[in-house]
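Thread: 3-methyl-2-oxobutanoate hydroxymethyltransferase, structure

OP (GT): Posting the sequence first so everyone is looking at the same thing. Length is 279 residues per the record. Can we get the structure tokens written out before standup tomorrow? I want them in the notebook alongside the other entries.
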Amino acid sequence: MHKSVQDILKMKKEGRKISVITSYDYTLASLCDRAGIDVLLVGDSAGMVMLGYENTIPVTMDQMCMFTEAVSRGRTNSLLVADLPFMSYQVNIDDAIKNSGRLIKAGADAVKLEGGTTMAETISAIVDVGIPVMGHIGLQPQTTMLSQGYKVQGKTKDTALKLIDDAKELEEAGVFSIALEMVSHEVAEIISETVNVPTIGIGSGVGCDGQVLVIQDLLGMYDKLKPKFVKRYMNLSEDIVESVANYKKDIELGIFPGQENWFSMEPEELKKLREEIGR
Ligand code: KIV
């Protein structure tokens, strides 16, 4: 039985840190699940790291459902949260419920959406139909990026107060956790102490109840951006380029495939064949 939303809430109560990693495909999802990650997040960052878009704006519901289905086939133990993409929940509450339902049918246990107080009513409506919601405040790539670009949030007293208000309202609306993206570490710590639901930080310091990173960032596979908050545990892109170049060289030199990589006929059958075709 995989982890539940209740298990994640309990981790905060018990003071245990929550590990979250983004996942978009079967193979990496099963490896992250095997590594014991608490939550797999099918983030709309898929648009950038999987589909090569400049940002998350073009991501569609169909794409998110496809990624979610693939990840759900790879997970056994982790909780699975999927992002509602841009414009799948902002137009009206009916859309938000319908699209949350699509992600749940695709295999998610919960959905995540961006926004503070303005999203409280939408969140309540989704939670009311029985779908758990993770909030997402601070830098909100679907919209903050349009107006401000990558910018640390909550650096002044007023913006900090607004973030604290947002977090409280999301909690009241019924979220089971809140992602805090690029929030100054002081404010992230205050929010984490203020709300009872777990906070999941990305670029928001160690005071959060859990941490999330994009898997391509931590494996060193995505070279377009390297935000300060990313810790690379590997430099996989170099290993991949080197391995693929070696494969190309082996093909050119006739080293690959080797005997161990091919299949043979029965000698008797080969003899008969040669006799028949005269070679
Ligand atoms: O889309 C995503 O990957 C996210 C996380 C970075 C929080 O929303």
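GT: Both are above now. Quick notes for whoever picks this up: The longest helix spans residues 236-253. Residues 22, 43-45, 83, 179, 181, 202, 212, 214 surround 3-methyl-2-oxobutanoic acid (CB under 6 Å).
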